[in-house]
Amino acid sequence: MDKFLLQQRVLEKLAEDLLQVEQAARAAHETATHEENIAENKYDTLGLEAAYLATGQARRAEAIRQAMINWRQFRPRPYDASKGIQLGALVCLVDADDSQQQLFLGPDGGSMKLLSGTQFVQVISSEAPLGRVLLGKCEGDEVSIQVAAVRQQFDVLRVQ
């Protein structure tokens, strides 16, 4: 699997998300400022609610823009066994049921699932619980995380 291709796919998905959020922010802003939505009494809050929504959408758009900057500056490096798993690693985990999952450890803001060929790749950051646990681990190591009341255990099968 090509890490640079995955990086491009993350950037494309972030660009799509940004477009949708910007459109939603514009629509909410138009609703908030439309003359028909001027409050006639203290219970008439449609304009106010739309303004809050527009503000939230604008913040989300800014977060996506920052994630895009982080992902554009990101340079995935080849796996170095002496350092273990680092940002940019493509990791294959296997659980007790022999179920495998592919993870791509990247910068913040790119949490998503991508289809690469016939396999799904989960993009996570080093700030995610599983991402934190993986840092510094090597092929053959065992990792575990607590999710709600369930402890999940995985073996690191492969790292690129």
TrEMBL record:
GO molecular function terms noted in the UniProt entry: translation elongation factor activity
Taxonomy, superkingdom: Bacteria
Domain Transcription elongation factor GreA/GreB C-terminal: 85-159
SUPFAM superfamilies: FKBP-like
Alphabetic keyword roster: Elongation factor, Protein biosynthesis
Record's signal peptide: none
Name the UniProt record assigns to this protein: GreA/GreB family elongation factor
The organism of origin for this protein: Roseateles albus
